[in-house]
Design brief:
four-stranded parallel β-sheet, five-stranded mixed β-sheet, about 475 residues, 14 helices, alpha/beta, about 15% strand, globular
């Protein structure tokens, strides 16, 4: 797909009854409807890798089957009922979403390419309480999220700017999520040094950012050496280095764009990516910059960034095994107001941050009626890719799961604790909604079905 065509250019226009009658006269037998391929059993779960999951190469034409999403949603719901049973039938085989075979182009003898809905990078899977952005890689997920938040069917629905970050720079991506906050509103997209992945290029063509006064005329912010397809307006470059140096540079850019100091600062670990991930959602929601600690000492770029705002409270996200007490003491020498928010592992750490409140800092999500974003703990780029969902719509924290197949107990307990209910009138009740990020290799259908059940509005006994 060329960069100057809208992303929905290939969505077919429905035939009128007259056109259908003409077609039947030409071809009395009619064309065979495309059928979903039989799902293949998923491989048994393997040992969890120590680093981020390997990315799969983007599939050409990754965003061309949006017209088929209704069919995919129906197939998904049936799969959730049969294969997942609301998370109760663990013996049912897990498998990838069915493949869709699009109709062959008129006048072409070539067989249509088969794509799975996971490759769309678009919210194609839906239950009544969850929506999945099912891309096969972070670039597809970021493109899907950006288009979900900015549908871009009219100029008013487009962002003024986007942020492009390298596919190997998860730390820069997490820090860059702050540029999604008001007044800039720039969603994160994934690129690389050579060329932008196809989903990124297609999303940029649809989003068509033009720059504005809020972005200081920039239509894109480039973090590091990344390729950017032809864009209208100027671009602003952020020099990339170590995680601490990159984050400090982004924090300085944030101050210039926002024209004011932040309310708080968040410090996370550069070595423990799974513990740093939830900071991206908060940065997008609040405009608070994310800085990095490295090893047992406070890096100089981080110390310098903290000194610029020495009177602001600092919140350290992660246990002492990730950010040491010695580092806390170094921060305290710059600013005495240092607070730690922590859980013992990635799942518990994300839940602790979702629950946390200290004045106007923290999500304080301890009751029903909220949005949530769920991603895998070994996919740090997905934290940045999905951050725009935490700064719009249902405005919810990022939660993490450490398995494709099984919902962690700590997360299940949290969802139960904030499960919505009603006594007499469900239309007046509070509702929860969960965005699920990634394909079935990240979070499978059965786990999503269980999340859906936990988010379901329930009748409370004793109601009239």
């Amino acid at each position: 797909m060329s960069a100057d065509r809208p992303i929905n250019a290939d969505v077919p226009v429905p035939e009128t009854p007259e056109e259908e009658a003409t077609q039947e006269a030409k071809d009395p037998a009619g064309k065979a409807a495309a059928k979903p391929a039989s799902p293949k059993p998923a491989e048994k779960s393997k040992a969890k890798p120590s680093g981020p999951r390997p990315r799969r190469r983007p599939v050409p034409g990754a965003l061309k089957l949006i017209a088929a999403t209704v069919l995919v949603a129906v197939v998904f719901i049936v799969a959730a009922v049969i294969g997942g049973g609301g998370g109760k039938d663990a013996s049912a085989p897990d498998g990838p979403a069915p493949a869709l075979a699009p109709a062959k182009d008129e006048g072409s003898d070539e067989a249509p390419a088969t794509q799975t809905s996971e490759q769309l990078g678009y919210p194609a899977f839906a239950t009544n309480n969850t929506t999945r952005v099912g891309g096969s890689d972070p670039a597809s997920n970021a493109a899907g999220v950006a288009l979900a938040v900015f549908p871009s069917t009219t100029p008013s629905q487009r962002p003024d700017a986007v942020t492009l970050v390298g596919e190997d720079d998860w730390a820069g991506a997490v820090a860059a999520a702050v540029l999604m906050a008001d007044p800039v509103g720039a969603p994160v997209l994934i690129s690389n040094a050579d060329e932008a992945p196809e989903p990124t290029a297609e999303a940029l063509a649809a989003l068509d950012p033009q720059g504005s006064g809020a972005t200081h005329g920039a239509s894109a912010f480039l973090v590091g050496d990344v390729a950017a397809p032809e864009l209208t307006g100027q671009t602003t470059q952020v020099k990339a280095g170590t995680p601490a140096a990159t984050a400090a540079a982004i924090a300085k850019l944030r101050d210039r764009l926002f024209g004011a100091a932040p309310d708080h600062v968040v410090v996370v670990s550069a070595e423990h990516l799974e513990l740093a991930m939830p900071a991206a959602a908060w940065a997008a929601r609040s405009g608070d910059p994310v800085l990095f600690s490295e090893g047992a000492k406070l890096p100089k770029p981080t110390a310098a960034a903290l000194k610029r705002h020495a009177k602001l409270p600092v919140y350290v996200l992660g246990p002492s095994s990730a950010i040491s007490s010695a580092t806390i003491r170094e921060i305290a020498k710059i600013d005495g107001r240092v607070h730690r928010v922590a859980g013992e592992d990635a799942v518990a750490n994300a839940v602790a941050f979702a629950r946390y409140a200290d004045g106007d800092f923290g999500w304080n999500v301890n009751d029903p009626g909220h949005g949530f974003v769920l991603a895998r703990d070994d996919a740090p780029l997905d934290a940045a890719a999905s951050a725009a969902l935490s700064a719009s719509g249902t405005w919810g924290p990022l939660l993490l799961t450490d398995s494709a197949a099984t919902l962690p107990q700590a997360l299940r307990e949290y969802f139960l604790d904030v499960k919505p209910g009603y006594t007499t009138n469900p239309t007046r009740a509070f509702y929860n909604h969960v965005w699920v990020i990634g394909d079935q290799e990240a979070i499978d259908v059965n786990q999503q079905a269980e999340v859906n059940e936990l988010a379901e509005l329930a009748k409370i006994d004793g109601g009239g």
